[in-house]
Amino acid sequence: MLKKQQVSFSSLIATLIATLGFAAAGNAAAAGPQAQAEAYMGANVGLYSKYDISCSAGQKCDKTASFGGKIFGGVMYEQWGVEALAFGTGKGEGTLKQGGKDAQGSVKMGGLGVVGVLPLNFGDFSLKGKLGAAYTHGTASYKSGASDSKNSIAPLFGAGLGYALNKQVSLTADVDHISAKYNKAGDKAAVNMFSIGASYKF
């Protein structure tokens, strides 16, 4: 089952990248030779992520996720852009839902997203607001030994700060708000992931 999901995710990534390429080419052609489209890609490592799950008295609770991160790529114009990303968050442990009741366990999520980007540039610094949607896969592992998972579509939004080291390479710091359903009943959790990394303009 996991192998099939990984193949599906890979296919979706390829489709998103191809769509971005066609969109960039079409927009550049429509706008004429003065249109300046900049394609970029990069990767971030999740330094700090926190889930919104609850904690029960006397039970182990760690809302701070373990290792996570994302890869991303997009096309940026002067006043707007489009970005595709693949992300994964580490697990957080606390009180989840199982069969409509509280149950101790851990949750993690991953998926693919597409967001519109609105930038503000201040010399070598740039500030970006991001809003879009994600195809997420959430997984719950319960203390009882049972597990559950679910795929869903969820809003995806965040903000990013960039610093240009030169014309091609920039350092990046992002905050992304990600949510996902994690069981067949449709219960969901959300996580705020802070990540840092670098991007490269082509």
Helix proportion range: 10-25%
> What is the mean pLDDT?
86
- Helix-strand topology string: HEEEEEEEE
| Global outline | elongated
CATH class: Mainly Beta
Q: Helical stretch count?
A: 1
Note the main sheet: 8 strands, antiparallel, barrel
What class would the helix/strand composition place it in? mainly beta
* DSSP summary, beta strand count: 8
Number of domains: 1
How large is the radius of gyration?
19 Å
CATH fold name, please?
A: Porin
C-alpha termini separation: 37 Å
**How much β-strand is present in the residues?**
over 45%
Q: Give the name of the CATH architecture.
A: Beta Barrel
Query: Unreliable runs, pLDDT <50, ≥5 residues?
Result: 1-10
Oligomer: single chain
Strand order of the largest sheet: 1-2-3-4-5-6-7-8
Protein name: Outer membrane beta-barrel protein
Main location: membrane
Subcellular location: Cell outer membrane
Pfam families: OMP_b-brl (PF13505)
